[in-house]
Design brief:
123 residues; mainly alpha; elongated
Length: 123
């Protein structure tokens, strides 16, 4: 009982010294604790109500994984292409373009300017 009397005496002295501000601070702290506990209980009850994701064991057909054909998609566009490591003669003729002397000079000048920009900062 002595401890309870001491604690109540300390609280009475604090309230007597600080007045209304102390009572307001204690009340605000009490309301904050109650709000946090209520929020915690609300979050816990929502976690229990969530649906569990069900995993299906049925296989998925390969056709459903690809986009259906449409007029907007050109025939030359593939969602996945086989990787050929070498070109045949037809692809070389279609895609490769032999660079002329002016393009090689332009490329060389642009590379030289890049190298000078990088090495210009070196002491």
């Amino acid at each position: 009982m002595e401890i309870i009397d001491n604690v109540s005496g300390v609280i009475q002295d604090f309230v007597a010294e600080k007045g209304k501000a102390a009572i307001g601070a204690i009340a605000a702290l009490f309301v904050l604790i109650i709000a946090l506990v209520a929020l915690l209980f609300a979050q816990c009850s929502q976690a229990n109500n969530k649906d569990i994701i069900k995993i299906s064991d049925s296989p998925v057909s390969a056709e459903s994984l690809f986009m259906p054909r449409s007029q907007a998609m050109e025939d030359g566009y593939y969602l996945s292409r086989p990787q050929n490591l070498s070109w045949d003669e037809e692809e070389v003729d279609r895609w490769f373009e032999e660079p002329d002397e002016s393009r090689i000079r332009d490329l060389s000048k642009s590379n030289d300017s890049l190298v000078e920009g990088i090495l210009g900062a070196v002491q």
